[in-house]
Amino acid sequence: MKRTLLFVTSYPPRECGIATFAQDLVNAMNKNFAGNLQIEIAALEEAGNAANVIQPPVSYTVNPFDIDNCIDFAQQINENDNIDLVCFEHEFGLYGGEYGHNLLAMLSLLDKPFIVRFHTVLPYPDLKCMKVVSLISELAAKVIVMTRSSAELLCRVYRVPSDKIAHVPHGTHAHIVEDIPSLKKQYQLEGKMVLSTFGLLSENKGIETGIRAMKEIVKQYPDAIYLVLGKTHPVVCAREGEAYRNSLELLVKELNLENNVRFVNAYLSLKTLLDYLSLTDIYLFTSKDPHQAVSGTFVYAMSAGCAVISTSFVQATEMLEDGAGCLVDFNNPEQLASAALQLLGNPELRQQMSQSAIEKTRSSIWENVALTHMSIISEILAEDKILPNLPPPYLDHIDRMTDEFGMLQFSKHDVPDPEYGYTLDDNARALIAMCMYSTELRPTTFVNSLCRKYIDFIGYCQKPSGKFQNYVDIQGQFSPMNGEVNLEDSNGRAVWALGYTMAYHQHLPFETVQEVLSRFRQCFHWIPEVHSPRAIAFIIKGLYYFLQYKPGGRAAELLKNLASKLYSYYQGEADDAWHWYESSLTYGNAVLPEAMMMAYHVTGVDAWRKTAEDSLTFLCSKTFTDSHMKVISNKTWYHRDTQQPPEEGGEQSIEVAYTMLALNTFYNITKNNSYLEKMRLAFSWYLGNNHLKQLVCNPLTYGCYDGLEKNNINQNQGAESTVCYLIARLLMEQWNKHKYVTTRQKNLEPARLGFN
User: Fold this and answer.
1) CB proximity list for 109: less than 8 A, separation 6 or greater
2) Does residue 511 or residue 53 have the better pLDDT?
């Protein structure tokens, strides 16, 4: 059911921080939940200014300084049956009356459920302020704040129940610029060390502190430049004109810093702002207000990877711990200069702070903030959670991770790390993903070129015996690790990839198909020797797909023999309480029941189908709840007779993708819709339906994070996680083809995915 949400907030073209915040949040929610959510805006008018022209998404204007207009607006909203929930952005200066008392009058008459977000929570309120804030909180269905300190103040000082408060951090923009020198050249900053600050100018910004610090900085770094980005705050400009800016420009002249301080007197577009932040070496935040709760400019700088030096306001003390930045005293240019000089002279420390700042803010990208808001809205309306629309299956990060030789194994964040070279495992999975891409979407010359690289890499790893090596260093040499670990599973994955390629070979040149066929047949010699359950399962999958290319023969015989062996493993381990092939659930578990179901499909052996169904049901009982998938942790695995509750964290993309592959196979063979439903639920893990309530896929790089830990997401985006995510995403193309309507049962319908 499509819901309508009304935001009551300042909104562009009005120029203020909350207007920008609201626009960014609305854009993120529209992007992620289009088709499931209608968002309208009630724009708050500025004191003394005429109302803005009403045009989408603005549906209403409100004069918050006119108590009668506030009351009329509340009645108007009550009479609109289409509005399901209202979200108020609160800052004391936005509403008329003492401490914004007009808002309280409006809320007391409102019949709709509403959320209020306090952008500021005063730590030492007088009785009137405490009463207004407490009453607003009492009327609200939920109160949102953006720092832990604000949440603690609401509980301790204003006596707001903790279960009514939601801490949702200020959203941030993820932005990647790979060529910083070119960007600096574009903005006439070539060869310069850039310090910057941005925001609507007013005296409480403390810009003079940064300018005075530059006097010392330029003694050692004469080419350093301080950018003061942003126009004067409209309210300040209306009250006193450009007096503050003029005083800053005069200070620059007095200190002879005309070549080292540049004012950019404009309200910057988002793209221009992110460009400036990307080229910034050090960001200076010099606010004079120790009680300032939150700053969008501050978190935007962190998310852009700036090394940050900040005065010790509330949010900075929370965010810059653990080496994510530097804290300095208020109005202290000497401290600021000293900290800046230390960073300018230590590129490694700047880089360390940059990475730490990115990691601290990646959980608060606007997509995650939108996801959290949708979860809160669903909770208030007592509805099933609606998850974001499917992200596009772009190949940007696949391309980034692939060089001329093959797919690299690891990355540092989103940057490929050649130190650990390549693996057969990753290139085999990548070949499967590219074949799926050509089948589910469309074959292209680019995708075919990637297929060619991965096929060549697999061929490079194949020995004269037909077996494969797994580890290859960046120089193309086989690593000693190949002799230190069991490579059966890796060999099995190679067979799976080659067999899958033969089944979906139509987009490949004839010569390539013949090469894959030759390499596949070379494996027949060693396949009977395999003992690892997973290697057997991978090989069964490869043989199953190969039989779609060429039925019968040696491949069918090998599949039957391997299935008998895997079935015997199950018979040796399973009992009434443990329906599995081994004594533990470890990694890649779903491939085992999937292989048994494929074997049944080829041979018609009913015992193998029952084993497949029983073991998949058992696995799902350990990895699914009614509302989400809980992946087996790679920190502890899951052992027979375990008495310990499952540990949080250690969840990886590969488990979700392999589970979805198995569920897809089971659906295709049995046509049982419950497998489709679980497949959809499994994919929602990537979209934030997990214990951290965060995206595991990266909407900026189109890669996938390496793991879901107990309290954070592993920010690296290596080959395994990214390829497995792409496989899972392509499986959702098949899910779309089989969409169906389920009967709602006992209010336990799993989370719904949104689709455009």
Assistant:
1) 71, 74, 75, 78
2) 511
Distance of CA 23 to the CA centre of its chain: 20
pLDDT at 52: 67
Residue 523 pLDDT exceeds 70: yes
The pairing of strands 471-472 and 415-423 is: antiparallel
The pLDDT of residue 742: 36
At 752, is the pLDDT very low, low, confident or very high (cuts 50, 70, 90)? Answer: very low
Report strand pairing: 58-62 vs 37-44. parallel
Domain 180-363: give its CATH superfamily.
Answer: Glycogen Phosphorylase B; (3.40.50.2000)
How do the domains of the chain map onto residue ranges? 3-167, 180-363, 396-740
Mean pLDDT of the 374-392 span: 86
Given a cut of 80, whether residue 641 has pLDDT beyond it is: yes
Degrees, nearest 5: CA angle 655-591-733: 65
Task: Provide the pairing of β-strand 707-708 with 713-714.
Answer: antiparallel
Q: What is the 3-state secondary structure (H, E, C) of 297-320?
A: HHHHHHHCCCEEEEECCHHHHHHC
Cα–Cα separations (whole angstroms), residue 648 to 107, 158, 626, 636: 40, 34, 18, 10
The set of long-range contacts for 135-141, using a CB threshold of 8 Å and a minimum separation of 24, is 135/104, 135/108, 136/90, 136/103, 136/104, 136/107, 137/164, 139/107, 139/108, 139/110, 139/114, 140/107, 140/114, 140/115, 140/116, 140/164, 141/85, 141/113, 141/114, 141/115, 141/380
Give the angle 88-98-134 at the CA atoms, nearest 5°.
55
Q: Report the alpha-carbon distance of residue 444 to residue 507 in Å, rounded.
A: 9
* CA gyration radius, the chain: 30
User: What is the pTM (predicted TM-score) of this model?
Assistant: 0.86
In sequence order, the 6+-apart residues with CB closer than 8 A to the CB of 189 are: 225, 279
**Residue 151 vs residues 101, 154, 362, 699: alpha-carbon distances, Å:** 21, 5, 21, 29
Distances (CA, A) of 675 to 419, 592, 633, 664, 751: 40, 16, 23, 7, 15
CATH architecture of 396-740: Alpha/alpha barrel (1.50)
DSSP 630-680: -PPPTTT-EETT--SPPPS--B-HHHHHHHHHHHHHHHHHH--HHHHHHHH
Q: Do domains 3-167 and 180-363 have the same CATH topology?
A: yes
Query: ∠663-667-673 over CA atoms, to 5°?
Result: 100
Q: What is the pLDDT of residue 749?
A: 33
How sure is the predictor about 51, in pLDDT bands with cuts at 50, 70 and 90? Answer: low
- Are the C-beta atoms of residues 232 and 201 closer than 8 Å to each other? yes
Residue pLDDT, tens place only, 183-213: 999 999 999 999 999 988 999 999 999 999 9
Distance CA(684)–CA(426), nearest Å, equals: 23
Q: pLDDT over 70 for what percent of the chain?
A: 97
Q: Are 524 and 542 in contact (CB under 8 A)?
A: no
DSSP-assigned states of every residue in 534-578: HHHHHHHHHHHHHHHHS-SHHHHHHHHHHHHHHHHHHHHH--SS-
* Position 426 pLDDT exceeds 60: yes
- pLDDT, residue 176, reads 75
Helix, strand, coil in percent for the chain, rounding step 5? 50, 15, 35
Name the 3-class secondary structure at 60: strand
Burial class for 624, CB neighbours closer than 10 Å (0-12, 13-18, 19+): middle
Mean pLDDT across the chain: 92
**The domain at 3-167 falls in which architecture?**
3-Layer(aba) Sandwich (3.40)
